[in-house]
């Protein structure tokens, strides 16, 4: 078909196609095995169903977002068909030519299969068949991939994970052209390609497959989905429950230092049970939840369609659908996911995996109209049953805004292993992490936080050290600095004791413990508070952190209040960093800058910090202001005369420039047993480079002061520049909502019920 430029004409053509062709699933009788009526009724049946095909064809040309998505996919696949098939012999890491081509092929195969079903155009089925036959000829000749870095090598790719990606997508393509193929052709593909492929990523690679991890989720889904297409019950059961009667060494670890199979749990159902909390939080964090959601959901769709008796979307009280809401809430105002644990910044709900998540959640969930507004922002839908449902919802004007509010998400399979809280007030977002280790992708940063304004980082979490799929940087894989810097405690906005990371930076120890919620309060829209405690990061030391975003009429914008109460049996050095972005404007302390930059330390991440300046606190409050993205920010923090203030910058001992050169201000307290760090961060004012005018560029705080700090209560006075005083009291121990408190501070009594007092 020649390329038609006029979009209206294209849509009209789709309508004509819908009427010209019947809604049958069989292909032209010259190539299809039309005698198998049962098979004809069954395919497609994974994410696209026979009934769905009928519905889509009947609506073509009348559902704008679906028609637009279809046209984009058609243009993409047509260009690939015109370019010809390329199935090279594997040799590269991520980002290399052969890796990129095989990755592109899995996407194109899946899309071409969908086009065949929707448009009933044989050229797409032929393209899929021809490429699959080339893979059949290649795969039966392949040894393990020549790159040896992975703990579980694939054949098409350097790791079984990518092989599993391939099979998850290609199983959908096979499902779409199943009836187009003859029985002989199907037998050839299943015998020489699909069954050996499924066996390699499972029984041949149990260290990859037989575990609870995002890797094995992909493997389970791959084996299960091809099993559903082939009606292979053994493969389906292997996917759901793992490899029968297999036991692995509980002490072996993967490339990231995580245990392969410490608890003996495996299979798709275990991968739903274990990593997800009842709130839908995924223990590896939002970056990897986003990555794992695609196989979770497409396999779940297939199981729903083929094995409805499993009631997969009701499994563990419907946690798969709950997890989508949790994941969407783990994004900033721009839709970018917060980079907790190993997380690449910039990954957002505009990724294709979240198009799947939003569409599936709407179709199989409660038809949440808020999801339609996100789908509208994504500006595309899946070319399947769920995509049609979303497209019709948008067409009928059902969408409403998806509102993100303050939320506390528990961690752990039973919701008892800490969690992650997000406090939101106007345009400010505070992300407070008090979760469990987060599997092998976890970082050693208990009670850490990051802070955002309008989706822009004010106080950052570094994220991961990796250039994903950029071959020039370590083959696109994790860099050594991910362990030496990004995972270390000093890389995060929390307390580091004696220049040693939490749990000594050891996964074996860190994976045993989690922080605990003290309280979460979001009922008062002007005062959002979360408090959590950590008792195991350092032996003999307890950290209790209470964080709040407070909207006060005396301030232009809400501000963040941070109270970190550290108690220890011994005297220690405490380092308390602020990873700000932007240009230093002003300080109220003097400091010296060295002529030659040297590392701040020799290990545990300190070797990667240049010391750019140092000074001593000169007042009870240290003030530091900076400028970023034409906005002003100010830090006010309580200090003593012994405290040091260190200007640092990431990048020491990094000759290959793998790390970003980001700045930090570090408050250092030496020879201290018990210390309560109290800080306020204000977002204020603006600057116009056009008019060259600065508005409200100075802090509105005159003084912050701790007026009570006991085992049970900590009270902070906040005085603004006009002399107005506000008092915040947090209950450190007895903090139930119904608890009544009565305390005296400087001769004045204060009574309240609940976890905190603010007035």
From TrEMBL:
A Pfam family annotated for this UniProt entry: Hepar_II_III_C
Keywords: Lyase, Periplasm, Signal
A GO molecular function held by the record: lyase activity
Principal location class: periplasm
Subcellular location(s) of the protein: Periplasm
Keyword match Signal: yes
Entry-linked InterPro entries: Alginate_lyase_dom, Chondroitin_lyas, Hepar_II_III_C
Domain Heparinase II/III-like C-terminal: start-end pairs: 411-666
SUPFAM superfamilies: Chondroitin AC/alginate lyase (SSF48230)
Record's signal peptide: 1-25
Domain Alginate lyase: 112-334
Gene3D superfamilies membership: 2.70.98.70, Chondroitin AC/alginate lyase
Protein name listed in UniProt: Alginate lyase family protein
């Amino acid at each position: 078909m020649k390329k038609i430029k006029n979009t209206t004409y294209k849509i009209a053509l789709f309508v004509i196609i819908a009427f010209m062709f019947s809604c049958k699933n069989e292909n032209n009788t010259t190539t299809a095995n039309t005698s198998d009526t049962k098979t004809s009724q069954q395919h497609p049946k994974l994410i696209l169903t026979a009934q769905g095909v009928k519905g889509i064809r009947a609506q073509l040309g009348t559902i704008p977002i679906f028609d637009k998505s279809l046209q984009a996919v058609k243009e993409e696949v047509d260009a690939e068909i015109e370019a010809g098939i390329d199935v090279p012999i594997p040799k590269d890491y991520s980002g290399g030519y052969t890796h990129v081509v095989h990755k592109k092929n899995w996407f194109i195969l899946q899309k071409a299969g969908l086009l065949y079903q929707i448009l009933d155009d044989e050229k797409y089925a032929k393209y899929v068949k021809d490429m699959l036959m080339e893979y059949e000829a290649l795969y039966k000749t392949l040894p393990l991939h020549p790159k040896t870095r992975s703990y579980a090598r694939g054949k098409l790719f350097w790791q079984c994970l990518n092989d599993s990606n391939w099979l998850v997508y290609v199983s959908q393509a096979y499902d779409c052209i199943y009836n187009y193929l003859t029985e002989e052709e199907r037998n050839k593909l299943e015998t020489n390609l699909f069954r050996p492929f499924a066996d390699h990523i499972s029984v041949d690679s149990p260290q990859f497959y037989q575990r609870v991890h995002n890797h094995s989720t992909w493997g389970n889904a791959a084996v299960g989905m091809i099993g559903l297409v082939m009606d292979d019950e053994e493969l389906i059961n292997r996917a759901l429950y793992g490899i029968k009667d297999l036991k692995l060494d509980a002490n072996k670890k993967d490339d990231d230092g995580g245990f392969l199979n410490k608890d003996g749990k495996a299979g798709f159902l275990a991968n739903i049970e274990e990593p997800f909390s009842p709130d839908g939080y995924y223990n590896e964090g939002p970056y990897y939840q986003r990555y794992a959601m695609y196989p979770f959901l497409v396999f779940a769709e297939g199981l729903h369609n083929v094995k409805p008796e499993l009631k997969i979307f009701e499994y563990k009280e419907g946690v798969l659908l709950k997890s989508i809401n949790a994941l969407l809430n783990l994004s900033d105002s721009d839709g970018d996911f917060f980079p907790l644990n190993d997380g690449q910044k910039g990954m957002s709900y505009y990724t294709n995996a979240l198009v799947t998540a939003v569409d599936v959640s709407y179709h199989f969930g409660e038809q949440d109209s808020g999801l339609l507004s996100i789908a509208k922002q994504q500006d595309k839908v899946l070319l399947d049953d769920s995509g049609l449902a979303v497209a019709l919802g948008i067409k009928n004007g059902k969408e409403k805004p998806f509102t993100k509010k303050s939320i506390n998400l528990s961690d752990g399979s039973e919701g008892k292993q800490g969690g992650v809280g997000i406090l939101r007030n106007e345009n400010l977002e505070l992300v407070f992490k008090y979760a469990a280790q987060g599997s092998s992708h976890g970082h050693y940063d208990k009670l850490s936080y990051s802070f955002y304004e309008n989706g822009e980082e004010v106080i950052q979490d570094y994220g991961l050290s990796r250039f994903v799929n950029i071959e020039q940087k370590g083959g696109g894989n994790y860099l050594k600095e991910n362990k030496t810097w990004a995972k270390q405690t000093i890389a995060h906005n929390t307390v580091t004791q004696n220049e040693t990371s939490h749990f000594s930076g050891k996964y074996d120890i860190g994976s045993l413990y989690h922080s605990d919620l003290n309280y979460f309060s979001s009922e008062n829209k002007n005062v959002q508070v979360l408090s959590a405690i950590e008792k195991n990061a350092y032996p003999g030391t307890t950290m209790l952190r209470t964080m709040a975003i407070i909207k006060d009429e005396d301030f232009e914008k809400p501000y963040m209040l941070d109270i970190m109460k550290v108690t220890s049996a011994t005297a220690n050095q405490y380092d308390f960093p602020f990873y700000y972005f932007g240009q230093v404007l002003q300080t109220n302390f003097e400091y010296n800058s060295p002529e030659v930059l040297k590392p701040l330390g020799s290990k545990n991440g300190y070797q990667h910090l240049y010391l750019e300046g140092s000074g001593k606190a000169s007042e009870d409050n240290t003030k530091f202001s900076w400028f970023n993205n034409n906005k002003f920010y100010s830090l006010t923090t309580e200090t003593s005369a012994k405290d040091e203030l260190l200007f640092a910058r990431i990048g020491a001992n990094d000759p290959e420039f793998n790390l970003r050169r980001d700045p930090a201000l570090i408050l250092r307290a030496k020879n201290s047993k018990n210390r309560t760090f109290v800080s306020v961060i204000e977002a204020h004012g603006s600057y116009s480079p056009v008019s060259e005018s600065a508005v409200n560029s100075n802090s509105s705080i005159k003084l912050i002061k701790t007026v009570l700090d006991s085992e049970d209560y900590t009270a902070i006075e906040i005085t603004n520049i006009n002399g107005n005083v506000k008092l915040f009291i947090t209950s450190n121990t007895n903090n139930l909502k119904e608890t009544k408190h009565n305390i005296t501070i400087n001769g004045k009594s204060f009574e309240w019920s609940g976890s905190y007092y603010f007035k």
